[in-house]
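Researcher: We're teaching a course module on how sequence relates to structure. For the next exercise, students receive a sequence and then see the predicted structure as tokens, so they can try to spot secondary structure elements on their own. Here is the exercise chain.
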Amino acid sequence: MFVQIRKWIVTEGNSDKIVTRFAKKTDGPTLIEKQPGFIGRELLVKKVRRGDEEVVMIVRWESQEAWKNWEKSPEHIAGHKARLKEGKPEQPEFIIAMEHGNYIVIE
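Model: And here is the predicted structure for the students to work with:
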């Protein structure tokens, strides 16, 4: 199994914007959920009383190849291009930092 982890640090009150963008839809599967080799994903929000907030997304794939196929798929690329055409920046101002890592599951 292959896992991708993304972590966003966002300004106070903005974690819901990340969650909304990546949350599962109620009107059917999303494009990534239809991708061969996709297993599942979770969104986690770190509870804070005040201050910067943290959102983590864990995406599980059957293999690294399945993930690579998604990354270079026309649907994935078109999604990024559409955001730019809509005038949405790749990284909105409320995002302080973003980290990502790719992992091979050993056990």
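Model: If you want an answer key for the exercise: The chain has one domain: 2-104. Helices lie at 15-22, 31-34, 64-71, 74-85.
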